Amino acid sequence: MTASSSSPSLAERLRHDEAIVTAWSSLAMPMLAEALGRSGYGAVTLDMQHGQHDIASVREGIAATRLSGAHSVVRTPVDDFASVSRVLDFGAEAVIMPMVNSVDDALALVGAAKFPPMGARSWGPHRAAMLKGESPAAYLAGANRETLALAMIETPAALAALDDILAVDGLDGVFVGPGDLSLTLSAGAEVVPGSDRVQTVAADIAVRTRAAGKIAGIFCNAAEDARGAQKMGFRFMAHGVDMSLLMEAAGAASAVLD
Amino acid sequence: MTASSSSPSLAERLRHDEAIVTAWSSLAMPMLAEALGRSGYGAVTLDMQHGQHDIASVREGIAATRLSGAHSVVRTPVDDFASVSRVLDFGAEAVIMPMVNSVDDALALVGAAKFPPMGARSWGPHRAAMLKGESPAAYLAGANRETLALAMIETPAALAALDDILAVDGLDGVFVGPGDLSLTLSAGAEVVPGSDRVQTVAADIAVRTRAAGKIAGIFCNAAEDARGAQKMGFRFMAHGVDMSLLMEAAGAASAVLD
Amino acid sequence: MTASSSSPSLAERLRHDEAIVTAWSSLAMPMLAEALGRSGYGAVTLDMQHGQHDIASVREGIAATRLSGAHSVVRTPVDDFASVSRVLDFGAEAVIMPMVNSVDDALALVGAAKFPPMGARSWGPHRAAMLKGESPAAYLAGANRETLALAMIETPAALAALDDILAVDGLDGVFVGPGDLSLTLSAGAEVVPGSDRVQTVAADIAVRTRAAGKIAGIFCNAAEDARGAQKMGFRFMAHGVDMSLLMEAAGAASAVLD
Amino acid sequence: MTASSSSPSLAERLRHDEAIVTAWSSLAMPMLAEALGRSGYGAVTLDMQHGQHDIASVREGIAATRLSGAHSVVRTPVDDFASVSRVLDFGAEAVIMPMVNSVDDALALVGAAKFPPMGARSWGPHRAAMLKGESPAAYLAGANRETLALAMIETPAALAALDDILAVDGLDGVFVGPGDLSLTLSAGAEVVPGSDRVQTVAADIAVRTRAAGKIAGIFCNAAEDARGAQKMGFRFMAHGVDMSLLMEAAGAASAVLD
Amino acid sequence: MTASSSSPSLAERLRHDEAIVTAWSSLAMPMLAEALGRSGYGAVTLDMQHGQHDIASVREGIAATRLSGAHSVVRTPVDDFASVSRVLDFGAEAVIMPMVNSVDDALALVGAAKFPPMGARSWGPHRAAMLKGESPAAYLAGANRETLALAMIETPAALAALDDILAVDGLDGVFVGPGDLSLTLSAGAEVVPGSDRVQTVAADIAVRTRAAGKIAGIFCNAAEDARGAQKMGFRFMAHGVDMSLLMEAAGAASAVLD
Amino acid sequence: MTASSSSPSLAERLRHDEAIVTAWSSLAMPMLAEALGRSGYGAVTLDMQHGQHDIASVREGIAATRLSGAHSVVRTPVDDFASVSRVLDFGAEAVIMPMVNSVDDALALVGAAKFPPMGARSWGPHRAAMLKGESPAAYLAGANRETLALAMIETPAALAALDDILAVDGLDGVFVGPGDLSLTLSAGAEVVPGSDRVQTVAADIAVRTRAAGKIAGIFCNAAEDARGAQKMGFRFMAHGVDMSLLMEAAGAASAVLD
Ligand SMILES: [Mg+2]
Ligand SMILES: [Mg+2]
Ligand SMILES: [Mg+2]
Ligand SMILES: [Mg+2]
Ligand SMILES: [Mg+2]
Ligand SMILES: [Mg+2]
Known about the structure:
The structure is a homohexamer of 258-residue chains.
Chain A: H1 10-15, E1 20-25, H2 30-37, E2 43-47, H3 55-68, E3 71-75, H4 81-90, E4 94-97, H5 103-113, H6 126-132, H7 136-146, E5 148-153, H8 156-160, H9 162-166, E6 173-176, H10 178-185, H11 196-211, E7 215-219, H12 223-232, E8 236-241, H13 242-254
Parallel strand pairs in A: 1-2, 1-8, 2-3, 3-4, 4-5, 5-6, 6-7, 7-8
Bound molecules: magnesium ion (6 copies).
């Protein structure tokens, strides 16, 4: 399956309430991103925060994901707003900013992700337009609608400010981080993303996000978490970290003689 | 032509009102930067904002440009002041900071680009000194004068603050971004860098910059823009993006049989 | 334009007497290969003999070319038969072996390029099959017909053995090297690929190759050489070396003020 | 588990009839090799023939495998005897040469893999000695015994010459390639490594190899093949290609909602 | 010597008042970091501020240092708090932030370096845990104690705020930069790290740091500086920059015939 | 010191009996080669046989060495004649082929290293000509004289054939490998390059090489070996391996407190 420029975008599909499962690419190797995209995922998210990706591997990984026909998404490092614009220039269809804990954080994200008048993204999307097979003018016309800015909600502060964050014009949705939610809700005591407490909070975020007419995404450690999230109203589910997928499969294969 | 340490620096040449055309290196390949430098350009600007360059490619690209005999310049990502110091440490002769919209932005640029007492650049220029064939002490003595800090003027806010920005001690000049000017002046409606409106603004920037005794640079999409800019008083003209140069030439060559 | 698995292959197109112009990629940067493929060329040839390519850049460059929709071809180093198989495993649609001066050379090329019983290519084309969107079994069924082995004819010895070389089963065609032909025909005195002597020899090679029912390709320095080659009967014309295309265009752009 | 210099070597373990399962690293990323080594495998084989590895990725991948505590093995390209010595210099504990079809091929392998008087390996193992924590003199004393030269048996010609190949002094063992055996035994008609014909041949190779007092290894596509091979007398079983392990696991994870 | 997970950590050793000499890795090559670690150093510090390191080279360099058995430390660029978390995720045992000039700077460092409730470090240390051979839960339990946050004291502002900086909970110690101290104390006039003025200030910092119960580190240009620093109470001494070590040794070796 | 195109070539200097000391670059990092070239060496030899260099690092390392002003030399892997031509195309001024044990080996080296009529080197030296600042025609005119083909003499077979090897037209000289000489003369028992036996043989090689009017080079482990070699008549002395230089210096620096 190869995406043509007439295929629906990730933004379109999510706005039409389609559920999309994204792979989580932590390893800085473009061909692995392509392989994930060829394995059934609708999207591949390249992780620059906790994963191994850097500017070079994201630049190449977005093209490799395109070759697979999957949508490409990038999670940037915390507060790295310059990289938000850069990865969109490279052709990412969505960007996930971690630790958006306030309206100011959300505004900064929109500022970097959206062209004027919505934001202050600087002009230079030639690589992205090339990958879409569009002219620069066509890219400009569609960009603010077709490239998604997603804010991670993963702390008590973010929960407290959630409705205001959701009201920020240009913010397309949220992405829940259950690991950090567990850590921050427990004041550093544990990381149990599947706990009742975290899942209850997640469900609430989904409801409020959908009520605000925005996209709800979430990181899912276990398969049942992904199915549960879909029921909660989430539509953009991350499930499957490349390193874990490989090591679990390798653990089984290496034990073939036992 | 290979630059020796006794050749005039980019700073010296621009302060003597010499017109310099710089190539625009968007592709993260050092040998391409060298090739641009060998093709007649006075300088090669490595673009980390909208181009594909990262720390590694800039680090190598500056040395490759040095081998060509051309001056090396780097445009950093927005607000990435840490990289300002880093690329100067790698041997860039000038740094261009995008989206300098206020005196505070300009002060932050000078802070990162100039050693005390003018700024707060941290000590560690051994690679730059090696490329210049200088001792560290000699490098220190000349650095604040010989390495240029250029602020991009490309928004209404920057235009409003222009005279104050130009008054910032240690800021060596400005660099006009006609694409973003067009985008921001039209509130996101268009990118027409050659429009009368943008060109009129550019000419005004040139006049005010020269009046302040500083260097005026500009990005030029078309050949006539470059010649026009020179007449307006600009002296540092970017003209020729590697990717576009290649693709246009390739488009013609591939059509050889038609 | 993105090639789907149902598009005609390079082999099919050349066997149907279609004329194909290939870019010549000498720079070891995958995105440049993609850019060439997006500029109008039917194919991109990655050069490991005199160009800068190595195994890693060819591995990535073939995928990048695929993304552009162009066919990918690789010229290997002299006598590097192991790389013949490797680049086919990576998904190259044709391989060009330089300095095929004897039937033995041609047999070695076929041995490396074709599966049994035609040759002795070893099994392991999973990456190539992935890029074609084929199962391994389907790849096996088509490989000997769909991947081309082209022998460079560029010395007096090759000319003397030409008919026997052309008679080697599994050799799909020849590729003329006018530079080396000029050098070897002049006993090292000159490299004038457009000389009458070289062009006369080239024309003769085209005639004999077509008479043998095989594909005739040639490297063309000048545009008129490419058009002349087409008239001689060549159908696979290389025209446009990335480095030269860039440097000529850069030379013109850098002189914008003169 | 981190290997110390006093851990038994791969050679020792195999000579003591211990069964070792090796991962098959086809992707040119050192950290993936390390991850395979941490997943339970006794060894990691880096594949330069059909995999994506090149000199640089093998050089780094051997160190990464060392960090995991697993043994490192390299399969070189066909007839690439220079690389045999190079990967041993980099610290590989065994080298697998594909397509050893004659005594001459086996002698060339031994020539490259063993120091005089057994072979003609050239002196320069400083990196390998560093990774082992040995002095160069200690490395020399043990190298011919501690680094394994394994010949792939995968064609009718190799089968015909098997006893003579096994008699070559310095050849430590064989490694069966069922895919190529299937292809060559069927004259190019099929690749069915698990067929009765291939498995019968494999069992015969195991018996004759053990009779000659040498090590028998084999590539195993399916888990039952690996267990069957152990019963046949094989002790060095490759099972689990990184790319396949990842894609199968990703295929399952991406279908979480279905 | 290979570090096992039961070896004492860098934090433990420094808290037990052990003196540790760290190499200074300025060159972005992982194997050089490993070589430094194998040469007798207790730790290797990878420098992203003035050195050539970037995210990719640090990611690989930490693993390479681990292979050598030495502790790994990273100095980040100025104000690059996102990288503080990233390099800890990659497995660095300590992070050095340059230009910590205020309590706010110190708080930001702690925020990025420590998990809640001490800081706001986000959860994702799987690579670091893998390198330590720990489960994620065990990593969480020890992380805030076992990974060090060190603040560079190198300006008059930092000196003025020193006691308050030292009082910041979660800040593990300071690292003195004599080069920048010399530069800033002289208002840009000189860089003489061994001057009496600088050394007197350094001694005072050591005393106050130890009084606050924290770790004192310092960069030492000359051997006598390192010995002097130990006497002043410093315990983490950087001495030996890879590039200088190499060039001085090469200068001597190249003059062998003179 | 930067080499200009009018500086004497390495070939010229050696033919005028000038003694040149070359660094030995084993680490695949171009900037280290440049650093060696800036440290006083006349030349830098990039080692692809036992060192870590590959095609990519040699391609970049030659340019980096050029930037330093030193001459660049490459030692290729054993029998890798394709790489002989490639590294000359990249701009190496000399190539050293290991294990030249017969006249046939020497002829193959000359075949790859020299243009017709002397050899069969294929045409494509555009990068080398660019680095020299020459036109392709000028490069052709000088290449066979200005690029050196050096054969390693390091086995009893080579010693036996030495006079015939020296008589091969186009072979510019020999390079003695005392390590392998020691190993092969002792039938694998030892590597003692400074032994009387090896040094006596080396001295004899120097005499016979000079008598044949050719260049004599040698690898020198110890400083006294280099001085001794010069007295024996050698003029191209390798002394100083980057890894050893670094590790010895690091060993001393890390012990600063002891
Ligand atoms: Mg999180
Ligand atoms: Mg702009
Ligand atoms: Mg040719
Ligand atoms: Mg096989
Ligand atoms: Mg400092
Ligand atoms: Mg040798």
